[in-house]
Amino acid sequence: MRFPLALTLRITRHIVKHKILRTPKFAMVLQLEPLHTCNLTCTGCGRIREYSTSLKDMVPLEQCLGAASECDAPMVSICGGEPLIYPKIEELVVGLREQGRIIYICTNGVFMRKKMREYLASIYSPAVEPQLARLVSEELVTEKEAEQIRKADAAARARVTIKPSKWLYWNVHVDGLEYTHDLIVEREGVFKECVAAIKMAKILGYQVATNTTVYKETDVQELEDMFKYLSWLDVDGHTISPGYDYDAAKKDMVKRLARDPKEFFLTRDLTRQKFKDIERWGQMFTIFGTPVYQEFLAGKRELTCTAWAIPTYNVKGWKAPCYLMTDGHYPTYAEMLGKVVWEQYGVVDGVARDPRCENCMVHCGYDPSGALGTNYQSGDNWKNFRYNFSARPAPSPEGAQVKAFNGVSIGKGHLAEAKAAVKSEFSGAKSAFARGGNDLPSDGASAASGGGCGSGDTSQRDEVLAKIRRDPPAA
Ligand code: SF4
Ligand code: SF4
Question: What is the DSSP letter of 287?
Answer without folding.
Answer: B
